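Suppose a colleague, Dr. K., hands you the sequence of a protein chain of 102 amino acids and asks what its three-dimensional shape might be. Before reaching for any lab equipment, you can write down a predicted structure in C-alpha cell form. Begin with the sequence itself:
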Amino acid sequence: MEMNLRKDAYFVQDENWYRQAEKYDNFIENEKNNKLVLLELGVGFNTPGIIRIPFEQMVFQNKNWNLIRINKNNSFNYLDIEENSILIEEDIDKVINYWIKK
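The predicted structure, expressed as C-alpha cells, is then:
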C-alpha cells in the first residue's frame, strides 16, 4: 500500500478530490483575515509546489499567519518569514512524543 502521491499515473484526482480541493480553497479564503497556524510535517522537495512553497507564500502575504515546519533535514524557509515561523530540525516522532509526554 502507498499513499496517494503525485508521482505517477496512479494519482487519484477524481470528483471527490476536486470537492476537497474546493473546500480547502474556501477555508483559506475565509481565514485570510484571521490568525492561523500552518503546520507542516516532513514536507520535502518531491513536489514543493504542492505544500511547501504555497505555505511560505501564504504566510508571507498574511502577516497574522504563522508557519510551524518540522523537518529533520530541510527546516528552512525560502521567503523572509522568520518572524512568523517556527522551524524545528528534528525527527517528527521525537517532537510529537516529547509534547505528548509533557
